[in-house]
Amino acid sequence: MGEGAASAGEPATAGGSDPGREEGAAEAFPILPYSYVVGQDALCRALEIAYVVPAVGGVLVSGERGTAKSTTVRAFARMMYGELPVTLPMNVTDDRVIGGWRIDALMAGRTEPQPGLLEHAGRQGMLYIDEVNLLDDHIVNLILDVVSTGLLVVQREGLDRPEIPLSFTLVGTMNPEEGTLRPQLLDRFGLLVPVAAEPDPIVRREILRTVLRFDEERARPSSDWLDQGAALDRERRATIAAAREAVHDIRLDDDTVSLCAHVAAEFHVAGHRGEIVMAHAARAVAALQGRTTLVPGDVRAVAPQALIHRRREAAYGDGLDWTDKDQDRLDKVIDEA
């Protein structure tokens, strides 16, 4: 496929609309329906987890180009919010990110604040950064500070605004062939999902069929296939939104807390964010599956994405892959706990 969560309450649709048939197929479906995405189960699960429990802290997607990273993120955003995500340009400046003064007002002798992209993301629900590893570190740091604190503070060039509460899901993608993030920044992303070209020829065939059919159906004035995709997306959105409400009733038991700490210690991860993210994400998995209690399998499902970028190897640009050996080690720790 081509390249290609959030404020509290029901999924936002501000500024967008539910895919419908009043428009032509191409206009109504600018991106493949989320329910038709093939071969990105791990990424889809991470995006859903981050939406259900925003405290997870966002998702970083690492993989070579042409692996549908951006397609999947945009399809998810359109399903949950009714529009594509707020996207940070590569050469963005500080004032475009956090806000500044309106240039046209200044030229007219007036001072009017100009909201930045972070405030737009707070209203829409998601901030998407493509090639986040190529962004200036101080811009990434600024964004991650807002994500972790939930507050935007603007104090610059005579502009001193009160703290602005913001909540959105941060999603970044990067191609590790072009460099990675510093360990301090990697650690600030809750989950990391490695993606690669699909090795299974059967799955590759299904990806190709889906892409070709999407291009064909979008060229039609109307499309039952795309309508069905929109209906499936509405059902999935309702399930994810219900999980977000239900997760507040899922309590972390002592066994799960101990298991998260034990797994993090076994993999020698830096700091303590690994086990914190693991615990939050495990609750989200249970909620998405309609359960009110946690099982060891919930930790098993999220541990790789919570730990992979916090291992010591990641500090040297290596280790952003979860190997069979890593999985065997995880299985042994959980089974013996």
UniProtKB/TrEMBL annotation:
<dbReference type="Pfam" id="PF07728">
    <property type="entry name" value="AAA_5"/>
</dbReference>
<dbReference type="InterPro" id="IPR011704">
    <property type="entry name" value="ATPase_dyneun-rel_AAA"/>
</dbReference>
<dbReference type="InterPro" id="IPR027417">
    <property type="entry name" value="P-loop_NTPase"/>
</dbReference>
<dbReference type="InterPro" id="IPR041628">
    <property type="entry name" value="ChlI/MoxR_AAA_lid"/>
</dbReference>
<protein>
    <submittedName>
        <fullName>Magnesium chelatase subunit I</fullName>
        <ecNumber>6.6.1.1</ecNumber>
    </submittedName>
</protein>
<feature type="domain" description="AAA+ ATPase">
    <location>
        <begin position="55"/>
        <end position="218"/>
    </location>
</feature>
<dbReference type="GO" id="GO:0016887">
    <property type="term" value="F:ATP hydrolysis activity"/>
</dbReference>
<feature type="region of interest" description="Disordered">
    <location>
        <begin position="1"/>
        <end position="24"/>
    </location>
</feature>
<dbReference type="Pfam" id="PF17863">
    <property type="entry name" value="AAA_lid_2"/>
</dbReference>
<dbReference type="GO" id="GO:0005524">
    <property type="term" value="F:ATP binding"/>
</dbReference>
<dbReference type="InterPro" id="IPR003593">
    <property type="entry name" value="AAA+_ATPase"/>
</dbReference>
<dbReference type="GO" id="GO:0016851">
    <property type="term" value="F:magnesium chelatase activity"/>
</dbReference>
<keyword id="KW-0436">Ligase</keyword>
<dbReference type="InterPro" id="IPR052989">
    <property type="entry name" value="Mg-chelatase_DI-like"/>
</dbReference>
